[in-house]
Amino acid sequence: MTDTDGPATGSADCFDLAVRAYLRRHPLATVVALGEGLGTGFWRLDNGSLEWLTVELPEAAAMRRILMPDGPRRRTIACPAAGTDWPSAVRAPEHGVVVVARGLLMFLPPPGVRALLAVCAERFPGGALVFDTVPRRCAGRAGPRGGAATERDAPPLLWGMDAADRPKLASVHPNIVAVREVPPPDRGPLAGRLARWRGRVPLLRSAAPAVTEIRFGRPGSAPADPERAAGRRSR
Predict the structure, then answer these.
(1) What CATH number is attached to the domain comprising 179?
(2) Is 105 exposed, middle or buried (0-12, 13-18, 19+ CB in 10 A)?
(3) What pTM did the predictor assign?
(4) Count of domains in the chain?
(5) How many Å apart are CA 92 and CA 63, to the nearest integer?
(6) pLDDT score for 227
(7) Residue 94 is assigned to a structural domain of this protein
(8) Residue 143 and which of 6, 151, 160, 167 are 20 to 30 A apart at CA?
(9) Range(s) of the domain holding residue 78
(10) pLDDT tens-digit readout, 35-94
């Protein structure tokens, strides 16, 4: 779990794109930041009407409340991010919920990942979950840590996902209606050409950070038609 908004996972811009896109459709939504630490996403993404809920372990939650006291639309609760209790803290799920899990799922065992996805799909119909992944070949290695922590201090990565595995996530729960990769922000023609070139090289493609968005429908709803990925401009 990241404790800042620095380059710990190298994908903060993709997360912001996905959340902003969801908030354009649901301006009163609740953003749930799992394992956010001292992240400052609320101040970057606040549209003046959203609710922000940070879910952290007790020690980290206490530190965040000291340094970033709760406000009228921003709360921190002490609860395991991978648990099943925190969804009850969302006050108005009918207004929409987008769950952000940055630098979290890769540290969970595969059954824990599936359980978290299933809980979100069950509890937040019409909502979304945005998370990042490492390639499957990275599972079992020491995870990334910022600051002065050494690789020896970092917990192992327990779950990885390759691009070919992404569509399989739809089988986790019947309420999952769309699974897509969130593309990086458009940084101009040269960056776009480099991204396309990297996508054609298997080794580079598998090593690139990947951010995925899962959308949830309502019980019995049919799978959604493919939509433009969050942040992609229409032509």
Answers:
(1) 3.40.50.150
(2) buried
(3) 0.81
(4) 1
(5) 26
(6) 43
(7) yes
(8) 167
(9) 12-216
(10) 999 999 999 999 999 999 999 999 999 999 999 999 999 999 999 999 889 999 999 999
